[in-house]
Amino acid sequence: MNISSLKQIWKENFGSVTEQFNKISEVNGLINAFNANIDAVVKLSGKQIEKYISNFNLNEDFFKKTTKQIEKSEDILRGLYHCFKNGIAEEQIILSQGIFEEISKIFAVDKLQMGGQGGIVANVAAICGVNNVYVHCASLPEMQANLFLNLPNLLSVDEENNIKPANKIRRKKDIPLIHYILEFDKNDTINFFGKTITCPKSNRFIATYDPLNLKLHIDENFVNKIASPTIHFEYIILSGYQMLQEFLPDGTFGTKRIDVSMKNVRKLKENKKNTLIHFEIASTQDKVIRKYLIDKIATQVESVGFNERELIDILEVINETDLAEKCNSNTNSVNLFQGMLKIFEYTQTPRMQLHMFGLYVTLQKKNFTISPMQNRKGMQTAAVVAAGKAGTGTLEIKENLLWAKDKTVSEVGLKGLQILSEFITENYGKNNITETGIFEHPDFDLIAVPAIIIDKPVTLVGMGDTISSVSLIAAR
Description:
The chain has one domain: UDP-N-acetylmuramoyl-L-alanine:D-glutamate ligase, CATH 3.40.1190.20. Helix 9 (254-269) packs parallel to helix 10 (287-298), helix 11 crosses helix 13 and helix 12 (321-329) runs antiparallel to helix 13. With 476 residues, the chain is of the alpha/beta class. It is 39% helix and 19% strand. A hairpin with a 2-residue loop joins strand 10 and strand 11. The mean pLDDT is 95.
């Protein structure tokens, strides 16, 4: 079937989005844990990046080195260039307060916005209408509180152990946790030592100095209060582990912090047996931590979410290096689906969702609590909400949530769906996944939905988190 016909079919499929979006208000409680912070957004042009490289008097050899952390202020340009050149998103840790202060003098901040998967998803879930969103914050001073939407259903815990609207809490002893988000645009160019480098995809590089979330600090007041049998919730969405390292600055082990977090998660869930836990896997640089997260969290929860880069990173630590390289060199829907199958087999996680460029793919066990059709409708809703965020720059205005509901799905996504369908036909049998988005196999269910791509997005921060969370809470 040609692309034009498929676009019309998917326009009809997406016709249920408004009705499905309204079902989010049926969700009776959600916990977002563990990370929220303040994002300092800097929009950079290719010319500005050139200027920074020149100001530091860097040579081409500097950019050939590979570093996973920012040990000197100029290291931020190495990570920024790498992401710009490849159109990818990465996050690196700033190792000291002194380096952070130096970097803060380099870039002019365009705006402050909610950061951290936990904080972003809390705002999205609350404005989408979830009844009572409880958000954990390692630190909640006034600057952080101001970034939470002023909504009565968006709640946290104050210094005196009271549940209040997060926007109204002022923990006076807490410090602001600020991350730099350096954004760049598709097709922008830089003159790089005589070569023209063109950015293939709008994306961002994140430079983070966050001494609390760095060690996955957990507010015990929050856990003790929300674990009460009188507090009701259907979902726990876990995130914020990506900054952990094998050895933390204080000499303790990052893996121990993961153990502590899961002890707290079990405490939250002990009176809520039907609560679904979703783990959002972010770009985790430390391989020891990455492997521990897969072994100790992904195997213990009902759902996980990741993007294409994160999927490749997971394959690397579960001894699927050849497939990881195959996905890295040819990042298409077929190779990534094969990667998902390997992770599915390794972790036995009942549900996993990939949000790749142009296409969302969910793989789940048979008879999972969310049906394939519910999943598809939830993913379609997420596609619209995510496009609304990209196109308008914010989901803080309710009208923006369905801003993209009449826009056409991407050709990139439809082509990815077509080659996936061909692969399924060759290996599993005939299917109509290109038209329905659903393939039901005796061993698993596969759901794939083409995304809506905004050519010149206002922002891309928190897109993956938005997609995963809305896909889940709208799947009803």
